[in-house]
Amino acid sequence: MSATTEPAPAGSAPKKTPPKLVFAAPRRGKPPRHLADLTTDERREAVAALGEKPFRADQLSRHYFARLTKDPADMTDLPAALRDRLAAELLPELLTPVRELACDGGKTLKTVWKAFDGVLFESVLMRYPDRATMCVSSQAGCGMNCPFCATGQAGLTRNLSTAEIVEQVAAGARAMAAGRVAGGPGRVSNIVFMGMGEPLANYKAVIGAVRRITDPAPAGLGISQRAVTVSTVGLVPAIEKLAAEDMSVRLALSLHAPDDELRDELVPINNRWKVEEVLDAAWHYADRSGRRVSIEYALIKDINDQAWRADLLGRRLKGHRVHVNLIPLNPTPGSKWTASRPEDEREFVRRLEAHGVPVTVRDTRGREIDGACGQLAAATKE
């Protein structure tokens, strides 16, 4: 693809055949049932079905969500004969770490997880002076086929279950509590669904995970909904459905281009829902939730970083409840896609600010440990 220096005249672009997009994961065996898959009432019903008092479910939940333990030996308020049985039924081992790398002075921890069926996916724990953010995956792979994304090029293997998503956060919380991240013991404060996969293509499991992450302990991990960000490439019906949930999570829209001609190539879902329609859905979500939308924009050298595109983006966003998060592209090995020149990045920022649009440049973490989403899992060999 060659860089465009000015907008193409309306109607001049040849008709394109929309690329194949994968929304439903291939069928595989289901992950074992886990406490985090269930609501509070469902947990009590599951325990009652085992012939035990329903309150035992609350005790088990308190250990997993509040005390961050899944070891039956730690559950001393449960009868010894019951601990192993309840743990086996409701706390099965879901994820096994197969590779773990640290960087940024030990403040960034990236983990490749293997699920029960052998699929691999990633999570990243990043500690900052004022917060600790967990970036979680919602799918193993991704079916959105964005050409500059390592995960998108790998394709979709399957959706993750609610509990497989929650366990990534719980594992990060245990690492923080144990002081395994530089800076001493602490807690996970923020969650971003920006790891592998398109979260809104796995809607039911992601919403379930958000509930478990944000429900007060012992029902969940007790993290504020306002500290949770759910990203999407622009699945308009799912954005509208999310707005109807009446949650206060932040919506992050991976836009990457302000014009349909380029976005059709960079984000193939744009062949189905165009920029204007996607932004309208985002503004509806902002109005319904009261939260400003984060516009994610990966700056790619000579592709989407032209000054005129910054002006077009500024005109589209001006006056809305929005913030632009510019992302210096973390290139994948052998890819033609690379980060913008520093001077082009600065000019892009300047032009957005001239339109009155708030903008920041993301602090890049993990470059030396295959920081782009999907890179480490792709490089991991069993």
TrEMBL record:
Write the Enzyme Commission number(s) for this entry.
2.1.1.192
The UniProt catalytic activity note for this protein reads: adenosine(2503) in 23S rRNA + 2 reduced [2Fe-2S]-[ferredoxin] + 2 S-adenosyl-L-methionine = 2-methyladenosine(2503) in 23S rRNA + 5'-deoxyadenosine + L-methionine + 2 oxidized [2Fe-2S]-[ferredoxin] + S-adenosyl-L-homocysteine; adenosine(37) in tRNA + 2 reduced [2Fe-2S]-[ferredoxin] + 2 S-adenosyl-L-methionine = 2-methyladenosine(37) in tRNA + 5'-deoxyadenosine + L-methionine + 2 oxidized [2Fe-2S]-[ferredoxin] + S-adenosyl-L-homocysteine
Q: Which parts of the sequence bind S-adenosyl-L-methionine?
A: G197, E198, S231, S254, L255, H256, N330
Known SUPFAM superfamilies for this protein?
A: Radical SAM enzymes
Q: Where in the cell is it found?
A: Cytoplasm
* Gene Ontology MF term list: 4 iron, 4 sulfur cluster binding; metal ion binding; rRNA (adenine(2503)-C2-)-methyltransferase activity; rRNA binding; tRNA (adenine(37)-C2)-methyltransferase activity; tRNA binding
Give any extra note attached to this record: Reaction proceeds by a ping-pong mechanism involving intermediate methylation of a conserved cysteine residue.
Q: What is this protein called?
A: Probable dual-specificity RNA methyltransferase RlmN
